Amino acid sequence: QTCALPIYDERVFLHFEGVAERADVFLNGSFLGRIQTGFTPWTFDVSNEIQVQNRLLVITDNRRRPGDVPGDIHDWWQDGGIVRPVSLHRRPMVCIRDAAVRTTLVPEGVRVELGALIDAPSRDVLELVTAELIDPATQAVIAKTSIDARPGSWACRELLLGPDRKSTRLNSSH
C-alpha cells in the first residue's frame, strides 16, 4: 500500500489489530519487525521511518508448524493475512500514554491516587504532568497537583480530600 502524509514534529505509530498468523512488516524499505501473535493487536513506532510518500509492505504467513497452537494437525483452516484494521496514530513528542485514578474512602475524607505513564523521546529528562480534579456539578477545580514523571515509568501522587473538599498532598513516587 502506498500513501502520502504531511510530516509534523510528532511521533507516529502503525497499529495492526490482527494479522494471521505471522507477518514481516516493512515501511519505506526498512524492516520494522515481525508479528507472531495471530489476532493480538501490535504497534510499531514508525516516527523515524515515516516520510511524505510512504510504501508499506506486509508479508503474511499462516502456515501451521509443529509447536504452534493449534499445531500442524487440526480440523479447520484458519484464514491468513491482515484480518483486522490497520491504522496510523499520531501523538505529540511528549504525551501521556496511560493514566489511572483510584479513590478510597478513609475516615479523614477521600484518598485520591493519581498515576501517569509518560512517553517521550528521552528517558533521562523528567516531564512535568499537571492534573486537576474537577467537580462535575460546578466545573470548579477541587484539587490541582503536579508530578515530575520519568518517561517510561509510572509516576504517582496521593492526595487527601477532606470533608471541606480541600486537598492535602500526601506523597509521590516515580
Question: Would you give an account of this structure?
Answer:
- With 174 residues, this protein is mainly β.
- The chain has strands at residues 2-4, 10-16, 19-20, 22-27, 30-35, 42-45, 53-61, 81-82, 86-92, 95-106, 109-119, 127-134, 141-149, 154-161, 167-173.
- A hairpin with a 2-residue loop joins strand 4 and strand 5 (30-35).
- Please tally the helical runs, counting DSSP H or I stretches of 4 or more residues: 0
Radius of gyration: 23 Å
Order of helices and strands: EEEEEEEEEEEEEEE
CA-CA gap between termini:
42 Å
Strand content: over 45%
> Within the largest sheet, what's the order of strands?
1-7-4-5
How many distinct beta strands? Answer: 15
